[in-house]
Amino acid sequence: MLTITRIHNVISAVAFMRRMITMARDYATKREAFGKSLKDHPLHMQTLARMEVEVRGAFLLLMEVSRLLGLEETNKATEQDRHMLRVLTPVAKLYTGKQAIAVTSEGLECFGGQGYMEDTGLPVFLRDAQVLTIWEGTTNILSLDILRSLVKSQGKVLDAFFSSAQAKLEAAVSLSELKPSVETVQSALHKLGRFIQKTGSKDQAGMQLAARDFAYTLARIYGGVLLLEYATRPSASATDTVAAQRWCHQELCPIDREEKNGSYNTEAAFLDLSLVYDGSPVLKGKL
Predict the structure, then answer these.
(1) pLDDT tens-place string over residues 4-21
(2) How far, in Å, CA of 133 to CA of 273, rounded?
(3) Cα angle vertex 20, ends 19, 21, to 5°?
(4) Alpha carbons within 13 A on the beta-carbon side of 57
(5) How far is CA 89 from CA 4, 5, 7, 242, 262, in A?
(6) CB neighbours of 228 closer than 8 A, spacing ≥ 6?
(7) Residue ranges for the chain with pLDDT beneath 50
(8) Continuous segment of H or E residues that includes residue 239
(9) Exposure pattern of 38-71 as b/e (b: 16+ CB <10 Å)?
(10) Phi, psi angles (nearest 5°) of residue 142
(11) Measured between alpha carbons, how far is 223 from 56 in angstroms, rounded to an integer?
(12) Helix, strand and coil in the chain, % to nearest 5
């Protein structure tokens, strides 16, 4: 049941983002600022383009999870397919929920004051988008659920993740325009694997602290994988290639950066607590 409703959540997140961008790009052809249409301002187009990349990645995550669900429901799923469905469902749900809030908020700015005034009907998009990170598991709950899937499968979901990612990258690595992006994703996969080997089951407390960044890492890496695979189709357009390249420009493995910063050790956990309750009477004298 949770698989179905979480995928419903992903559908809503992608739909919210797509609708916001559709309206914003239409508005950009009609609204003028500094003597020209918004669409003729490179900065505004850059903002919309960044939003577009997010939506394309989210859409492919949705389609991949839906494909895996279809295989499972028709009894055609392999063991790897089932493991991928188990891990990608919470990953896609938590990540696209966060994306929807960010893209919707940015989209409202595209309308200026109209994006804030209730009688335009626009503010409700942001208000409704907020439920996507709460319903059927908040970001932290889903992050811990992903860790649980690793434990219950004895690491097989991660084996499936790495195997699936590498297989999907094979076609892209032979294309010169995609090769640098493929190498970026492969580097992120290597860093992720190194982190798992170093931490893994040896430090459960550290893994729980890293759970959120771990989930984001899985989402960003696999989003890049799917965009690169999509860009290798014979009918792929130049913008498909650009979308894949730009997705891979972001930090694909935040868990590696934060691990190097010491964010997951015992001292970091204590400092987190201190920062939150410093000066608060709630835990006065208890730190």
Answers:
(1) 999 999 999 999 999 999
(2) 24
(3) 95
(4) 34
(5) 9, 10, 7, 26, 29
(6) 168, 169, 172, 178, 181, 182, 185, 244, 248
(7) none
(8) helix 238-247
(9) bbeeeebeebbeebbbbbbbbbbbbebbeebbeb
(10) -65, -35
(11) 9
(12) 75, 0, 20
Integer CA distances (angstroms), 126 to 20, 91, 122, in order: 10, 21, 8
What does the pLDDT read at residue 202?
65
E strands present in the chain: 32-33, 36-37
Q: Write down the H helix ranges in 153-233.
A: 156-173, 179-198, 204-230
Tokens (6 digits) for 199: 């931490």
Looking at the DSSP bridge assignments, the partners of residue 32 are 37
Q: How does DSSP classify residue 235?
A: T
What pLDDT is stored for residue 285 in this prediction? 57
Q: Which residues partner with 37 through β-bridges?
A: 32
Q: Please give the Cα distance from 103 to 54 (Å, whole number).
A: 8
Residue 223's φ and ψ, nearest 5 degrees, are -60, -40
| Residue 112 backbone zone (phi > 0: left; psi -120 to 50: alpha; other: beta) | left
Q: Round to whole Å and give the CA distance between 160 and 277.
A: 41
Q: How far apart are CA 111 and CA 121, in angstroms?
A: 12
SS3 of residue 32 by DSSP: strand
| pTM for the predicted model, two decimal places | 0.94
Distance, CA of 179 to CA of 175 (rounded, Å): 6
Please provide the DSSP assignment of 159-178 as one string: HHHHHHHHHHHHHHHTSTTT
What is the pLDDT, as a whole number, of residue 32?
Answer: 82
Task: Determine if residue 32 is left, alpha or beta; phi over 0 gives left, psi from -120 to 50 gives alpha, anything else beta.
Answer: beta
Rounded-to-integer distance, Cα 86 and Cα 214, Å: 15
Q: Tokens 């469902």 identify what position?
A: 89
| Contact criterion met (CB below 8 Å) for 66 and 84 | no
